[in-house]
Amino acid sequence: MNQPNDAIRKELEALTCRLLEKQLTTDQDARLTEILNAYPDLIKDYTNQIHLDSLLSASLYESVPEGINVVDQENLSHESQTTHLGIPSAELPASRRFSFRLRGIALVMVVLLVGAVVWLNQKVPPRQENQIASRPDYVGMLLDTEDAVWGHDDLEEDIPYGTQFKTGQSLWLKSGIARIHFQSGAGVVLEGPAKIEFRSPLNALLHHGKLAAYVPDEAQGFSVDTSKIRIVDLGTRFGTVVDRSGEAEVHVFEGEVDVKPVMSANKKLANLKASQALRFSNGTVQGAEISVTPAKFADVPTLEQLVAAKSGNYPPQETIHFENHQPLNQISLIKENSALPAGILVGEDFEYPSTSLFQQNGGIGFDHEGWWVDQNFTRLMVPEKRMQWGGLDGGPMILEARGRHHAYPSLAHRMARKLETPLKDDFYFSVLVQYHGLDGDDFFGLWFDDSKGRLGNSHSLVPSVGFKEGQFFARFTVKDEVLFQEPIDHETFLLVGHLARKNAPHFNHLEVWVNPVGDRVETPDVVVNLPKEGKLLKSINALGMRIGQYTEVTDSLFLDRLVIGDSYEAVTQPAAVQK
Asked: Which UniProt keywords are given for this protein, alphabetically ordered (predicted)?
């Protein structure tokens, strides 16, 4: 593990201060995340600074004497200024800027208040170590999901992110993944089939299923019960797999855990440290050693998600501003020439008198409801230079989609839209794409499905094309994907595909070309056929695009000239010349 030096600690302190003052740029936000990932030992310093600021903020506004206007006092100490924050403000309390003088007043008030409480309550027994003051309204909160299928008749088919769960409430996850924040500060990821019961901010009962947990210092003592054992976290990451018979595996990735019998909390069966794992079977008091396997478990919630969830307002809603925001060039919207060719089935050139694609209902062959987009991370813009490949030119406006911020849900969907008429026959498609900031962690996927789905749908079992791990890919499912060629950062490429039925009532054949020159309809770069696990699509009713979970928020993906036609020639020909 990397050990931070004084320079790194000072840099983290400076970046955290800028974050609290709402002066953090997008690049600085990326650097802050990089430091926390590279030096886990500094996470405690970071969270302590956040918590102290929260305490001072709350104490200041609750304790200022009547008649004193805090905002007026701030204005005496600070010049009015406007900043664009590179992370969602929902991660922090609404008011953040305080003069040092007011912070000092607040700190004195806090000290005096604590002293008075202690003096007045000397006979009250002190709070036990790791005891968390529980709010009566909720114990846990749903952060995000991936392809979750719930097994509850009394819950909606799709549980909204930010849904809060009370003590005694259970969640039954038939399949998929769900990430949960506990009020104590712990974060867990649940993988179905699984059933979990919320007992307190520091405890949950896992009836069966797979669970991994990240437990920061503030939640130390967080425990997970099975029917036979209790796993008590002593910091920081662990996982468990429980079957319906009560057999359980316990894996420790960082820190250590104690394993105790549920019926005898004072007795300890085992103490496991990092890189150790045991299997506990019915009737046994000593677990059998097994290999620790982190890859068996899904990713736990990010630190940024847990910080954002503490506000009780999740997911974050405030727009993350684009730097160097460019005004619309109204002259460029005079459509003397469209980027779309003639005779196509579906097309979008992203030309609208707005910076947002949300609910825009233009284009050809799309449903009247318009586009769904994540407005926090997408915008319409006028590029300095139009996108171009070969003889194909983009239009005067393009769509920009940014990477994923770690405080937001893991499935970073950027846009989706229904088609006016479902596609039931073979079709071809093409799109101009350019990426800025490309590296091996980045992911972009254009998918085709029979519905738009919800935010928790990954569309991982449907035809998709794009790039990942530094290469282009084509697939029906993750297991059958084929990687080929390498995209080049900052260069425009033309992505062409053909989705067909080969002696079947559903789409089962995908061909893909990258930057095809000449008539190459018979020579695609890659061919993929539908495996047994794939979704049997008899029609295509919607399309969409998403960014990868580990894509940096500073990255940008640019799209233009999205076209669907009934032939290879239809989607690779230049735009129609208007007379």
From this structure: Membrane, Transmembrane, Transmembrane helix
Token pair of 459 as six digits:
């569309």
DSSP class of residue 331 equals: G
State how far the Cα of 444 lies from the Cα of 441, in Å rounded to an integer: 10
Q: The domain spanning residue 237 has which CATH number?
A: 2.60.120.1440
Say how far apart CA 261 and CA 225 lie, in whole Å.
9
In the chain, which residues have pLDDT < 70?
1-3, 22, 40, 44, 47-48, 50-137, 153-157, 265, 282-286, 318-321, 323-337, 577-579
* Helix/strand/coil for 183: coil
Based on the fold, state whether residues 303 and 407 are members of the same structural domain.
no
Contact 241, 248 (CB under 8 A): yes
CA torsion sign for 325, 327, 333, 337 is negative
- Per-residue pLDDT reduced to its tens digit, 383-422: 989 999 998 999 999 999 999 999 999 999 999 999 999 9
User: What's the domain count of the chain?
Assistant: 3
The C-alpha atoms of residue 405 and residue 24 are separated, in whole angstroms, by: 14
Does residue 341 sit within a domain?
no
Residue 563's H or E segment, with its range, is strand 556-565
CB 348 within 8 A of CB 339: no
Note the pLDDT of residue 125: 36
Using DSSP's 3-state secondary structure scheme, residue 63 falls into: helix
373 assigned to some structural domain: yes
Would you say residue 50 lies in a domain? no
506 φ/ψ angles, rounded to the nearest 5 degrees: -130, 165
Of 357, 472, 456, 474, which is closest to residue 412 (Cα–Cα)?
456
Spatial separation of the C-alpha atoms in residues 271 and 276, rounded to whole Å: 9
Query: Does residue 367 sit in the same domain as residue 275?
Result: no
| Distance (Å, whole) CA 397 – CA 411 | 26
The answer to whether 76 and 40 have CB atoms below 8 angstroms apart is: no
Same domain flag for 388 and 443: yes
504/425 Cα distance (integer angstroms): 11
Q: What pTM value is reported for the model?
A: 0.73
Question: From CA 209, how far away is CA 194, in angstroms rounded?
Answer: 4
Residues 351 and 335 sit within 8 Å (Cβ to Cβ)? yes
CB 545 within 8 A of CB 403: no
Do 229 and 373 have their domain in common?
no
Specify whether 254 is located in the same domain as 396. no
Residues forming a β-bridge with 175: 149
**Chain centroid, CA 349 distance in Å:** 28
Which domain range does residue 562 map to?
346-571
- Nearest CA to 473 among 504, 437, 449, 497? 497
CB 537 within 8 A of CB 426: no
Asked if residues 249 and 277 have their Cβ atoms less than 8 Å apart, the reply is yes
Beta bridge partners of 521: none
Is there a domain that residue 331 lies in? Answer: no
How far lies 527's CA from each of 3, 88, 425, 475, in Å?
Answer: 47, 41, 18, 9
Return all residues near 518 (Cβ < 8 A) that are at least 6 apart. Answer: none
